[in-house]
Structure formats: structure tokens, C-alpha cells
Amino acid sequence: MKQFGGQKVHWSWMIVAVMAGLSWTAPLQAARLKDVVNIEGVRDNPLTGFGLVVGLNGTGDSSASFTNQSMKMMLERMGVSTQQGVKVKNVAAVIVTAMLPPFARQGGVVDVTLSSLGDAKSLQGGTLILTPLKGADGKIYAVSQGPISVGGFAAEGGNQKVQKNHPTVARIAGGAIVEREVPFELNDESSLQLSLKNPDFTTANRVVRAINGSVGQPIAQARDAGTVTLRLPPEFQGRVVDFVSRMEILEVEPDTTAQVVVNERTGTIVIGDNVRVSTVALAHGDLSIRITETPMVSQPNPASRGATVATSNTQVDVQEKNGRVIEMPEGVTLGELVRGLNSIGVTPRDLIAILQSIKAAGALQANLQIL
């Protein structure tokens, strides 16, 4: 057992070794082409808008001037005179965000997320007033309105407050209606650009070979590690959807660089399958220091004019376990590295320091990423 982050956590390197063993004993699984690449131009488009949520039970904005100004302007557009300042706690200003999917058509619906902009305490029970959603070009692509759903709550009394999740962020499922379409005609294209989700020269070459081998002619060519140019065969001109549906089910074995990811806050360590270690010797030893203080009080004799003196007896105990030295030969694999470190009884916190030292020595043939 190890005290970590205020909780006792039992670190079992056997679990790590077994999980790692699954990765270096089983063959690499091929992935579908649709999971490896994206088609340039076929992507989501972010939309944003400014809106008002009404119907709150006194949990809206209390001092945000832009909320009062927006409420006043909305009422004036509806023909309601507002000679005096509008001050209500049942209204909250929000930023509305959504993602417009590719090939979205007029009348389609998308989900929207609402985030409080002022000092509102909760958006629970509110309703979003008609809000236009604009794209990066400033044009309106969707409008949103409707009752919102908050995945939490907040309640407070005189001296206590209870809160679950985040009550100032809400969501409306299918809350925006598409009003404008993004112009993109896929069937008019004579060539396609495939963008690799994880750029890699080997993966790009395998994508080219998979496509050309399936079609039987050299229609694909890798421009760089992240882009593959695809020229449509003559028989598929005007039938891009049919061609893409046949290509995206092709299986490609993606290649990755050797990575070691370390999260010092949680003690999580992920070691990739391609990690190799050059010849290196490791030593591990534990040094524990325990300081114990025993309070002592010296009382004066009766009828004397002495004073009570408080002292303490400090005892320092230092123990150092005998360390073990192991040698890692050149070309050590992931499994051998885990078993070797497990044999000397290292913990995740110790392993972080060991990996950093191996990397500093130039013996770790992988990228060490510390989160």
C-alpha cells in the first residue's frame, strides 16, 4: 500500500505486466481506412451565438449590465416600452455553441450547449429565447430555442451549499434548426485529399498501397506524412460517394512512434509497444527517515518558586534498504523493461524518476511525454 494524493492506493505491477504482455504478444490489428484518415472538406463547422435564458427561479444574473441591456432591447423589439432600467434575476446571458456537421441540410437539427456569461448561479428550469448561430464568416447558419437541460443542481442555505456537477452549463438536444447549408458538392470532385489523423510516413505509404492494390491502378499518391492525394477512376466520376464507401472499409495497419506518457499527478504511466532501451544499469534503493517527538514537562517542587518548563525529546530514525542493480541489455522490449523494473520493486512514482534518468542518459529510444 502507498499513500498517494491523500488516499491509500495499491500499486500492482503484475497488472501492468499482464496488460503490457497482451500488447506485445498479440499481433497488431489493422484499422479501417475511415478510422485512419479524414477527407479534406468533410468536417464539422463551429457555430456560436449570444442568447438569453428566461424563466429562472431567482438564479439568473444579478449585476451583469449586458444582460439588462440585452433584455431591454429584446422587449423593445417586441413593442414593450422599458422607460426604467430592467433588473431581473430570472434572466441569464449565455453563449450558445454548436457544431454544424458536414452535409447538414436545411431543416436538420443539431445539439447546442449553453454556457453562462454572467454571475448566474444556475440555469436549471430555464428556456432559451430565439438565438441565431453564426459561423466564422459572420453568416447565420442555424437558430436555437427551447427548454434547456442541466445535468446538475445547486442549493444553498444560510451556512451550507450543495452542488452537483456544473449548473451553469446546459444543453438542448436537437435545439438548433439548420437554416443555411455549407456549399460543398462532393460528387463534383475529380480528386480527393486524404488527411491522416496521426501523420506518419509509414502509415501514409500503407494507405497508398492499400488503395492502389484494391483498385488495381496507381490512383493514390502520398504527398507527405499527413496527406494522400486520391484521383478518382474514370468509372467513378460523378459517383464519389460510391467510391468512398468502398475505400473506407479497406484495412490499414497504422504505424506509431515509440511513446512513453507519464502523468505525475495521478501516477499513470503508459508505455508504447515500440519502446526500446539501450544498454543501461539501474539501481533502486529506499531511504526512509522517521522523526518522532515526545513532549516532556518539567514540574517545579512544591512550595518552590520555579516555573514549569515544557520540552520535547526528538528521536530521528534513518533506514536505508539495500538497493539492487540490474542490467538492461541493448534492445530491451516493453515486456522485459516492465519485468525488470518489477523485479526491483519500483512504484509508479519511482518509475517516473527512473524513466527521466534513462531518457537523460540517452538510453530510452522513445519520446518521453510528461503531463
Structural account:
The protein contains six helices and 25 strands. The chain has three domains: about 1-25 and about 260-300 and about 310-370, no CATH class; about 30-40 and about 185-250, Alpha-Beta Complex (Aspartate Aminotransferase, domain 1), CATH 3.90.1150; about 45-180, no CATH class. About 20% of the residues lie in helices and about 35% in strands. Strand 14 (about 220) and strand 15 form a beta hairpin. Helix 1 (about 15-25) runs antiparallel to helix 5 (about 335-345).
Which features does this protein show?
disordered N terminus, 19% helix, single chain, 371 residues, 25 strands, alpha+beta, six-stranded antiparallel barrel, Aspartate Aminotransferase, domain 1, 3 domains
Summarize the structure.
19% of the residues lie in helices and 37% in strands. The protein is an alpha+beta fold and 371 residues long.
Percentage of residues assigned to helices? 10-25%
Total helix count? 6
How is the largest sheet built, in terms of strand order?
A: 5-6-7-12-9-8
- Describe the sheet with the most strands: 6 strands, antiparallel, barrel
Average pLDDT figure: 79
The dominant shape is flat
In percent terms, what proportion of residues is strand? Answer: 35-45%
Q: Ranges with pLDDT <50 over ≥5 residues?
A: 1-27
The span between the termini is 24 Å
Radius of gyration: 32 Å
Indicate the structural class.
alpha+beta
Question: Can you tell me the number of structural domains?
Answer: 3
Count the beta strands. Answer: 25
